[in-house]
Amino acid sequence: MALWGGRFTQAADGRFKQFNDSLRFDYRLAEQDIIGSVAWSKALVTVSVLTQDEQQQLEVALNTLLEEVRANPQQILQSDAEDIHSWVEGRLIEKVGALGKKLHTGRSRNDQVATDLKLWCKEQVLLLLSAVRELQRALVDTAEANQDAVMPGYTHLQRAQPVTFAHWCLAYVEMLARDESRLKDTLKRLDVSPLGSGALAGTAYEIDREQLAEWLGFASATRNSLDSVSDRDHALELLSDAAIGMVHLSRFAEDLIFFNTGEANFVELSDRVTSGSSLMPQKKNPDALELIRGKCGRVQGALTGMMMTLKGLPLAYNKDMQEDKEGLFDALDTWLDCLHMSVLVLDGIQVKRPRCQEAAEQGYANATELADYLVAKGIPFREAHHIVGEAVVAAIGQGVALEALTLAQLQQFSPQIEQDVYPILSLQSCLDKRNAKGGVAPQQVASAIAEAKARLSDR
Ligand code: ARG
Prior knowledge:
The protein is mainly α and 459 residues long.
């Protein structure tokens, strides 16, 4: 059923119809469209367009339709309706006859689609929030199990100072906590109902839009009808949230891909999230992680695409805005999938402690400690830095660690170095000393784990 045939004498070209129709993707808004329609029918009673009895009939039919849609959303795709709004209205008219034709009084697809999309976004935010929290919990659990797994920390992908696998996990917990807070923030601004804004200038029926908003579970109603039907900030914000969240997941994936290389060999990934090569029998590829890293691209693309679609659009609604859906749907689906997949990856990960420890012991990760030791003996840091640099060159020349140099050898670089230097050079001492807030000292890591657990405890 086309909603607008009256003014036209020629049928739409089949190719234009294909091009113009949005049902193949906006069918995902079916539930929201029906729920919005029930609320609108209630509003129409308050302005005497519908009687109580008529509204009841519509509501019953709409609820039946809702059940049908929930049972089998794919059935919608069999129809040649233009979009989900026409589909719902058409099905309603099939069910209740002429009465169904009253529902669209005072409403436009412009305020309708804006409302549907916001209702959908609100649901997605909740799903995403719970997935972001689930991944944080998985990271905290992994941290807890690996507090004593010492490994090299990197800057410039050069071994820099020792950290623990737990500390690495907690870094990602922080990123995800910010993702969580961004989503909550997005939700606050998005929670405003456009319904009752009409096509652009407001509805001609004196509907209590605040009450209507409340029926739909929105915090309030929008203030300006022109803005209401043309605002897609919530799509932009959610896409930005997704784009940043995916950057985090992509970095997480890249770190683990590196830890999993034959060269680093710090972790073993589960068979459940890796796959083999069709040619090389020895291989076990980190496909889940590579896909997480790779899918980051399409999400950035969706954000940029939406920005460009909205840029320079005149007020109010334009058909360009129909382009808001596919990228948003895909980006949020992708983010959600990648969050779930990251949990799965952590679930089966094995940290190879001896190998991590060995790597942390190599690479002169304790050079800073030696410099700090000299500082404690009264040598200015810049000078101490230089002395240690020379000691490192000598150790590299002999192919040994700093702590493997004899005291006599060390004293050639500075007579201030004494026997008490050796404990200072141990990995454990490197960790223990970083005991200011946020540092890698076991005590700090333990309290960070406890704090994160408390924050994430309510399920
Ligand atoms: N399918 C349209 C969309 O997604 C619905 C709104 C159509 N409004 C209009 N005036 N043609 O944006």
